Amino acid sequence: MSLILTPLSTQKFTLKNRLALPPMATAKAKADGAMSDEILSYYDEKTRDQNLGLVIVEHSFISEEGRANKNQLSASKDLHVEGLRALSDLLRRNGAFSCLQINHAGMYARPSDASVVPFGVSSHPEKEVRVMTKEDIKKVISDFSAAARRAKEAGFDAVEIHSAHGYLLNQFYSPLTNKRTDGYGGSLENRRRIHLEVLKALREAVGESYPVFLRLGASDYQEGGTTIQDSMETAKILEREGLDLLDVSGGFAGYTNPHENTQGYFRDLTGELKKNLHIPVLLTGGITDLLAAEKILVNEESDLIGIGRAIYKDSEFLRKELDHFRRG
């Protein structure tokens, strides 16, 4: 059997194959972030063919001041749990292991109240921010923890912490934006401190047996930014502290690699990270055919393959590709 259709099992979870739908914002939630029929219809259309092993639902804000856009999904209030449960139930019926990604946008936040100044890890030359105090940091950690509890209560099989694409945790991680001089800035150890504190808080909220993933902006791909060496060290520590899966993307380069545009363009990151980790590694980036995906798995450059834009553009993409792939 091809690797792409082989189950992946860990001590905490099993995926029926190596195909994942990565988180992609739909901006289809209601104004307050509540679940909508449009979101449910969207995910049903993308998953009803039962071909996806893992679905990571789009980033959901953990607090109003961390909201990234007007119609972003919310995991910020207990009253949103029932709506989220409708989505986890749908994904389960459609045969997928479901994960909810939770996020704080930091300086890129756009709260409903336009008078609220977004949090900043440090002052920023081009953005008006409110530099975070230790109390602000504690609140964010608590908000991540509460959002993870809601994900579990809503029936999702796992929760994912978002630390990529320049959002708040990535703003702490990257020296491009973290100019702090306290225990959360300066050295790599300090810049990743909040990640470990968030992970610990999540564990206390959801228990040891519940899978916790993290999407890491593993390289900024620019001078003075984070590097693969930083992320290898950080990923090993996160694994040691109980992380269950590493979802790899870009940092301040976003979800693209400025130096590479072939299929699986984050292979330079996932290949090195996989050599150093025991937990599964997920690669997303420009995959448009399953033969290329299979080659990445055979070359041990990743454990899982995320296919985003191709499925976003064509809900029949995976069914057609699998028919072609199985015929060889």
From TrEMBL:
<dbReference type="InterPro" id="IPR001155">
    <property type="entry name" value="OxRdtase_FMN_N"/>
</dbReference>
<keyword id="KW-0285">Flavoprotein</keyword>
<dbReference type="GO" id="GO:0016491">
    <property type="term" value="F:oxidoreductase activity"/>
</dbReference>
<dbReference type="GO" id="GO:0010181">
    <property type="term" value="F:FMN binding"/>
</dbReference>
<dbReference type="Pfam" id="PF00724">
    <property type="entry name" value="Oxidored_FMN"/>
</dbReference>
<keyword id="KW-0560">Oxidoreductase</keyword>
<protein>
    <submittedName>
        <fullName>2,4-dienoyl-CoA reductase</fullName>
    </submittedName>
</protein>
<dbReference type="InterPro" id="IPR013785">
    <property type="entry name" value="Aldolase_TIM"/>
</dbReference>
<dbReference type="InterPro" id="IPR051799">
    <property type="entry name" value="NADH_flavin_oxidoreductase"/>
</dbReference>
<feature type="domain" description="NADH:flavin oxidoreductase/NADH oxidase N-terminal">
    <location>
        <begin position="5"/>
        <end position="320"/>
    </location>
</feature>
